[in-house]
Amino acid sequence: MQKYEKLEKIGEGTYGTVFKAKNRETQEIVALKRVRLDDDDEGVPSSALREICLLKELKHKNIVRLHDVLHSDKKLTLVFEHCDQDLKKYFDSLNGEIDPDIVKSFITQRSNRLSFSHCKHVIGRQQKYPSLALNESGELKLADFGLARAFGIPVRCYSAEVVTLWYRPPDVLFGAKLYNTSIDMWSAGCIFAVLKSVTQILFMGESEDEGQYTFTVFLNHEQSSLGEGEGEGQYKSTSLHLESTVHLSYSKYFSKIRHRRLNRLLICNPALRMSAEDAMTHSYFADLLPSLHNG
Amino acid sequence: SELLCCENASMDLDLTVKTYIDPVVLKDDRVLENLLKTEEQYMPSSASFFSCLQTDVKPEMREVVAHWMLQVCQEEERDEEVFTLAMNMMDRFMSLVKVGKTQLQLLGAVCLFLASKMKENPPFKPEKLAYYTHNSVTLEEIREWELLVLARLKWDLSAITPHAFLDQILERLHLNLPEHVIQMVKD
Q: Which UniProt keywords apply (chain A) (predicted)?
């Protein structure tokens, strides 16, 4: 541990404390993430193990870089590239005003990152804006891979307890366990909406019940998109459940944030949701610098 | 727990409920290219580790431990990929580090432990693995060797297993088979 000099505590991560530190040799600023290995537990926590293994594979400018893993009997230390702030802190500093071009730049960088990981066989399952970090030059980095996993055969049961509640797509919220890359695109849509409206969370619910209720509102509006496309089997079991639930006005969510691109990300039927690759070629991004398109 | 009633509903429909083919993964050749490229990075560093490095352990012993590992996975109804991933780790470790006869089953158990953490939730309990070795392996050893294997493999555990290619190949064969036949092929 002599290699790094601890500077300050940055926060608490999914499984331990995060410090800002300096490499004594190179003077480089890094973030150290501590993972305790308790005597009585299961060794290295699987979330930490997956995060490390996937990050080692995913080297991309919009994914936070894992430089090194140090371990002793009692703890692991992950050495990450340091990012100055997360997106939430950045928003809080803006007081509700955001430059549309910055929104566009952020969204491009996110889509770029997603398209890259999906291509590499990894689903994020952890898209929320506090996990998105920013460095000094405005580069957006995905920072938290605690829930990510590499996917094998798409016809496969995964845990439904994934993705921070507010960013969980309706199919998964209602219990679908056979999901795929479309899960990340819903969350991308939520974040896009949050960016457009600044600081307002799109589907806020304190519990899964409440989250489902909020979606019911949304889904009643989206009925027209049901039943199209292939493989809606999983999805139908969801909509059956919905028909018995309450109708409510959705206008409060959509007066502000209706946007043609959101319409294609926030589609309840996962089979019809836009892919990260399609998102990258959307006309919304057409006027951006070509350098942003090349990951 | 609040999701239970929905989960039951989808269980009743299990026969008809299938996820759809994910075009993002199956229709894009870059995914297959990435899989092939990545697979190569996770090969044992030398295929001839029995002739040069492993003087104590013989190929037949590896076979015996491999059988044991497969049986544990079947007994515990583990995902098929846990076994193939664990074997990949074991071979890569043996191509780097000389292993004693008495350590081989310990290595096998630790690789199962790590592979299940990568692929499944919940992973194997160390107690369970020790039990399957008739307690010839201790929990302490499993914990120590977990870190040893991770360090020697440089934490590179997300190897590509043969399963990852199955859907890619089936998609490209354009067989137009009914869904249940495809499922049989996969099983």
A: ATP-binding, Cell cycle, Cell division, Kinase, Nucleotide-binding, Serine/threonine-protein kinase, Transferase
